[in-house]
Design brief:
single chain, alpha+beta, four-stranded antiparallel beta sheet, 7 helices, about 20% strand, globular, DNA-binding
DNA sequence: AGGTCGGCCTGGCAGC
DNA sequence: TGCTGCCAGGCCGACC
C-alpha cells in the first residue's frame, strides 16, 4: 500500500523529469478516476498546463501547474501506481486508468487494479489549502513536527493509538505498515489509548514515526503487493519490516513471537513482550 | 464531536 | 481442476 514513503519515492523520481514540462493531453480511461467530474471535462481542464513542481502532502501527489494553479492532486489509495514511459513504449496495459502525455513525448500512466485511486483538480492555492486543512494533520517529517506536536494530537483521545496514527486528519501520511513499524520502535502497544501516553512514550513514538518513515524512503518504499517505482522496480522496505506481516516469526529485539490481531478492522502486527498494554487502574466490571 | 463501521473494488488464495 | 467466497485496506460517509 502506498504510504508516505512510497509516495515520496515516486515523487523524487518524477519531480525532475516533469518539472518544466507541459501536459499536452490527458486521457481518462476509467471515469471513476476523476469522478464526480466527467472524464471529458477533466481532460479539458488539465490539458495545456505547465508542471512547475511535483510536491507531496501526506499520501497525495500535488502537481503544481502554471505557478498559481490549478493543482492536480493524485492519490494512489491501495493499489494505484504511476509509471513513466518513453514516447514509443507500448502504453496499453492492464488496469490503466488514465494517461498524462507530456510535451517531450513521455507519458505518465496511472495504473490501478482495484480502482480506488483518484484524481482531483483544484483551481487555486486557496482551494488547495482548504482541501488539505479539511483532511490532513501535520506532516510527520517536517521540522515543525515534534514530540510536543504529538502530545497536542493525542491529548484527551481515547481511541487506540494505532487507530489515531491511521487517521490522516490527525497526522498525515502514515498507513498500516508504518503505524505498526513506528509503534514497535517505540515499544508501545497498538491498543494503548492515545491519550494515556506519557511524555517519554510520546518522545519514543515521535522517534519511531520519523525513523520508520525515513527508513521507508531510504529503502525506496515497500513492495508487498503492487507497489513499484516509476520504472517498475521494487522497493526494499518489505525486507526490513520489524513486525509488519511477520506473525509467528521471532522478534528481532527479544526473540518472542510476533502476533497478529485485528484492530479497527486492520491487520495489526506487534511483539507482545516488547509492546505491553498499560492498563490504567480502574474498577473492572464483570462481563 | 469523537469514534467506529460499512462500502467501494478486484486479484489472489484457501477450502471444498 | 474449477468454483465459491473471503480477505486485503485508504478514505469517506453514515451512524451512534
Amino acid at each position: 500500500m502506498p504510504e508516505l514513503p512510497e509516495v515520496e519515492t515516486i515523487r523524487r523520481q518524477l519531480a525532475p523529469r516533469l518539472a518544466g514540462r507541459s501536459i499536452t493531453c490527458v486521457k481518462v480511461i476509467d471515469p471513476r478516476w476523476c469522478a464526480p467530474v466527467p472524464a471529458q471535462t477533466f481532460e479539458g481542464l488539465t490539458r495545456g498546463h505547465t508542471i512547475d513542481a511535483v510536491s507531496r502532502r501526506g499520501k497525495y501527489f500535488v502537481f503544481e501547474l502554471d505557478g498559481a494553479g490549478p493543482f492536480l492532486l493524485l492519490h494512489l489509495r491501495m493499489t494505484g501506481n504511476l509509471l513513466y514511459i518513453e514516447d514509443d513504449a507500448p502504453a496499453d496495459r492492464d488496469h490503466l486508468r488514465a494517461t498524462l502525455e507530456l510535451d517531450d513525448g513521455h507519458r505518465v500512466l496511472f495504473v490501478d487494479p482495484r480502482r480506488f485511486g483518484h484524481a482531483t483538480l483544484l483551481p487555486d492555492r486557496a482551494s488547495l489549502d482548504r482541501y488539505f486543512a479539511d483532511r490532513l494533520g501535520p506532516e510527520p517529517l517536517a521540522d515543525s513536527f515534534t514530540p510536543a506536536t504529538l502530545a497536542e494530537i493525542v491529548a484527551g483521545r481515547t481511541q487506540p493509538v494505532k487507530s489515531l496514527l491511521l487517521t490522516q486528519k490527525r497526522i498525515a501520511g502514515i498507513g498500516n505498515i508504518y503505524a505498526d513499524e513506528a509503534l514497535f520502535r517505540a515499544s508501545i502497544h497498538p491498543r494503548q489509548p492515545a491519550g494515556t501516553l506519557k511524555s517519554d512514550e510520546l518522545e519514543a513514538l515521535h522517534g519511531g514515526i520519523v525513523e520508520a518513515l525515513t527508513d521507508g524512503i531510504d529503502a525506496g518504499g515497500a513492495s508487498i503487493d503492487d507497489f513499484r517505482d516509476i520504472d517498475g522496480a521494487r522497493g526494499a522496505m518489505q525486507d526490513r519490516f520489524l513486525v509488519h506481516r511477520r506473525a509467528g516469526e521471532p522478534c528481532f529485539a527479544c526473540g518472542g513471537q510476533i502476533r497478529r490481531i485485528v484492530l479497527g478492522g486492520r491487520g495489526t502486527y506487534f511483539c507482545p513482550r516488547c509492546q505491553k498494554l498499560r492498563r490504567r487502574s480502574r474498577p473492572t466490571r464483570a462481563r
